[in-house]
Amino acid sequence: MATATKKPDYIVSPGAILDEILEERGIPKQAFAERCGRSPKFVSEVIAGKAPVTEETALQFGRVLNMEPQVWVNLESNYRLRLAEQEEERRFARQVAWAKAFPVKDMVQHGLLDKPGSPAETVRNILAFFRCASVESFNEMVAARQGAVAYRRSPSFVGHPQAVMAWLQWGERIAEGMDCRTYDPVKFRACLKEARRLTMSGPEEIQSTLGQICADAGVALVLAPELAGTKLSGAARWVGDRPLLQLSLRHKSDDHFWFTFFHEAGHILLHGKKGMFIDEDKAAADDPKEAEANEFAASSLIPKHVWKSFAVRRRFDEGSIRKFSEECGIAPGIVVGRLQHERILPFNTRLNCLKQRFEWSN
């Protein structure tokens, strides 16, 4: 992130500079006022910083003092800007409690925020990250997103809206720099078939290939680690005319990663451009769109009829799972995860050794 330049604590007004110039040149204030065609009171107010130097005044000062009028325009503009910055600094200092609701430590660690030099600077940095001018405008943005059904149903968004918003904003900022083609749903469905074959690959190949095949179909795939307080596995939404699929690698296992990927892909393909979906461990069981995305993910990874013929066995070992996964063309860890999800295998089974553990490089 960009580092702000340290500004001096003091502010020099155009009037203070005018006062110095008049004193250096030995020009009485009343005589100067007469030459400018202004009242002595007006000149005194400019010197005291009470009256602004307008464009007309800048022309008069420039002509009488043999200076470029633009000098006075710039001095006035910089002075007013510094006054506004000081007022903003005082306002931010009163809003530090608002900033404490964000996972600032995590955001600094991931390079989303500069390390703040003061509590007020923390407020400023957070607003800059979200590209919001004020805390009020940020709160309006949060309120607008809370109106979406997917957000209302999210325990994380209800409990930690600032952390969730930070994670989503992180994804959108990453996506801005991605080179994606125009979205094509037919190409994206074809991309998912190729993605399914990637389940047999290692993390390095997955990371280098999956994002590219999604981009070729017009989908921005973003991998962003979870931030403290989020507990999110993934999210799917449209940003402008581009679908964004964001994954956190929350549980760092291949079965969870791939199910989440296909789940979010289902939202993009099935649920239109207006929906915003954030998914976590405790998804809303009564949400038909979530159920539809779950079914899409499950059948995309293992066709329903294929799964039924396998799951009825009820006795599974490493050999049978590896054989089935090879026949299906998917990673064995996905099969183990599906068996656990359907309560056929316990979550502490020794067959967890078939799952791949994922760690993404930066």
From TrEMBL:
NCBIfam families reported in the protein's UniProt record: antidote_HigA
Annotated HTH cro/C1-type domain residues: 18-72
Protein's recorded name: HigA family addiction module antidote protein
Assigned protein family: Belongs to the short-chain fatty acyl-CoA assimilation regulator (ScfR) family.
Annotated GO MF terms: DNA binding
Organism: Pseudaminobacter soli
SUPFAM superfamilies: lambda repressor-like DNA-binding domains (SSF47413)
InterPro entries registered for this protein in UniProt: Cro/C1-type_HTH, IrrE_HExxH, Lambda_DNA-bd_dom_sf, Rad_response_metalloprotease, Toxin_antidote_HigA
UniProt xrefs under CDD domains: HTH_XRE
Pfam families named among the record's database cross-references: Peptidase_M78
